[in-house]
Design a protein that fits this description.
The protein has 366 residues and is an alpha/beta fold. It has 14 helices and twelve strands.
C-alpha cells in the first residue's frame, strides 16, 4: 500500500488535513506546537467514480476501492536534523513513507499561532528543505566513506555510487533536495539505495482559507508555492484543510453542492489523493464479479502476470491468460456476455502491459 507522510511546520494545518483525509477526528488539531506526538495513521480510499456503476452492472453490493495510507507526522522546527524539537522522531517517521505531502500555510489568521511569528510559505518550505538536506548530507557522507572502503577492495559498484554522490552532495550542501539533481535512470536506481529523504516524491499542499479557494491564482503565497513546486518537478495542490474537515460531517451530495456554491468543482482531498497516485506512477485495474468489485493498485507499465500477483501469488504462479476489457467498453456493452459477442473482450498473455481502467479476469491453474 502507498504510504504518504503529511509534514510541515507546527500549526500549518497538518492534523486538520489528516482529519479531512481520513474522515475522522482522530488527530488532535490543537493550536500549539507538537499537538501531534505520535504519527497518526489513516487508510484512505482512492476516489474512483467507476466502482459504483460497475458494481450495479455486475449486481454486487461489495465495493473495495484502492487505498492510500496517510501518516500525520509531528511538526518540524529548525535544528531538527540535529535532534531539536522532535527532530529525530520526525526524520525516522518520514523515512517510512513513499511520498511526502508538505502542508504549507498560505493564509493569514491572527488567532492561529505561527511558530516563526509570521506567515511566509517560502521560508517554511526552505526550513524543512534545509533540515532534510542536512540529514541527507550526513547519510551521504557515511555512504561515501563506505563506498571508498569498498572501492579499495575492488567493488565495481562502489565507483558508480561515488559518481552519484559526487552529483548529489553539492546540492545537499547548498540546502537543495536530491530530487532536483539530474540523474540517469541507472544513477537514480543507485541513489534510491541511499534512502535519502529529499529524494522522495513531494506534493506541496497549499493550505488556503475558504475565501481564497475559488481564486487561488490571486493569492501571492500560492503563486510562490507553485513556483517552487514547478522548479522541483513536484506537484502542488491548493486545499482548504479547515473546510475539508468540516465537509466530512455532510452527506456526499451535500458536500459537492457546498463546494459548487464556493465556485469549486472538486474536493481538494480528492485531488490530493489522486496527485499522490500520479506522482508515484501508479494506476488501477479493476476486477468485477458477484462477490465484489475491487480496484487494485499497480505501477504503470506492469505486465499482466505481475498484476495477477497483486491479487494472489498463486494466480501469478499459475497464470494462463487474462480476459481484459476496458471499463468504458464494458459499460457501453452493458454486460460481459454482450461485450464478448461484440469482440470487445480480449485474451492477453503474460507480457500484456496493463492499462488504467482495465477490467480483468485472470485464468490460472496451480
Amino acid at each position: 500500500m502507498l504510504r504518504a507522510g503529511i509534514v510541515g511546520l507546527p500549526n500549518v494545518g497538518k492534523s486538520t488535513l489528516f482529519n479531512a483525509l481520513t474522515a475522522q477526528s482522530a488527530a488532535l488539531a490543537a493550536n500549539y506546537p507538537f499537538a501531534t506526538i505520535e504519527p497518526n495513521v489513516g487508510v484512505v480510499a482512492v476516489p474512483d467514480d467507476r466502482l459504483e456503476p460497475l458494481a450495479q452492472l455486475v449486481k454486487t453490493q461489495t465495493i473495495v476501492p484502492a487505498t492510500v495510507e496517510f501518516l500525520d507526522i509531528a511538526g518540524l522546527v529548525r535544528g531538527a536534523s540535529k535532534g531539536e524539537g522532535l527532530g529525530n522522531q520526525f526524520l525516522a517517521n518520514i523515512r517510512e513513507t513513499d511520498t511526502v505531502v508538505q502542508v504549507v500555510r498560505c493564509f493569514e489568521d491572527d488567532s492561529v499561532i505561527h511558530v516563526e511569528g509570521k506567515v511566509d510559505p517560502v521560508r517554511d518550505i526552505e526550513t524543512i528543505q534545509i533540515e532534510l538536506a542536512l540529514a541527507d548530507l550526513a547519510t551521504a557522507e557515511r555512504r561515501r566513506e563506505k563506498a571508498q572502503k569498498n572501492l579499495k577492495g575492488g567493488d565495481k559498484l562502489a565507483r558508480a555510487e561515488l559518481e552519484v554522490l559526487d552529483k548529489i552532495q553539492p546540492a545537499l550542501e547548498a540546502g537543495r533536495a536530491a530530487r532536483t539533481v539530474s540523474l540517469t535512470d541507472d544513477e537514480r536506481a543507485i541513489a534510491r539505495s541511499f534512502f535519502l529523504l529529499t529524494l522522495k516524491p513531494t506534493i506541496y499542499a497549499a493550505n488556503v482559507d475558504e475565501t481564497t479557494l475559488a481564486s487561488p491564482d490571486e493569492n501571492a503565497m500560492v503563486t510562490e508555492v507553485r513556483r517552487i513546486a514547478a522548479a522541483e518537478a513536484a506537484e502542488c495542490v491548493v486545499i482548504c484543510a479547515q473546510l475539508e474537515a468540516e465537509l466530512v460531517a455532510l452527506p456526499p451530495h451535500e458536500r459537492l453542492d457546498y463546494l459548487n456554491s464556493l465556485g469549486v468543482s472538486t474536493s481538494g482531498v480528492d485531488r490530493l489523493i489522486k496527485s499522490a497516485y500520479h506522482l508515484l506512477g501508479l494506476m488501477s485495474f479493476l476486477t468485477a464479479g458477484e462477490k465484489e468489485v475491487r480496484a487494485w493498485t499497480i505501477p504503470q507499465g506492469t505486465r499482466a502476470q505481475t498484476a495477477a500477483g497483486t491479487i494472489h501469488s498463486d494466480i501469478e504462479r499459475g497464470f494462463i491468460r487474462a480476459e481484459v476489457i476496458s471499463y468504458e467498453d464494458l459499460m457501453a456493452a452493458g454486460s460481459t456476455a454482450v461485450a464478448r459477442d461484440k469482440g470487445l473482450l480480449r485474451l492477453e498473455g503474460k507480457d500484456y502491459i496493463m492499462q488504467e481502467g482495465d477490467v480483468v479476469h485472470f485464468r490460472f491453474n496451480v
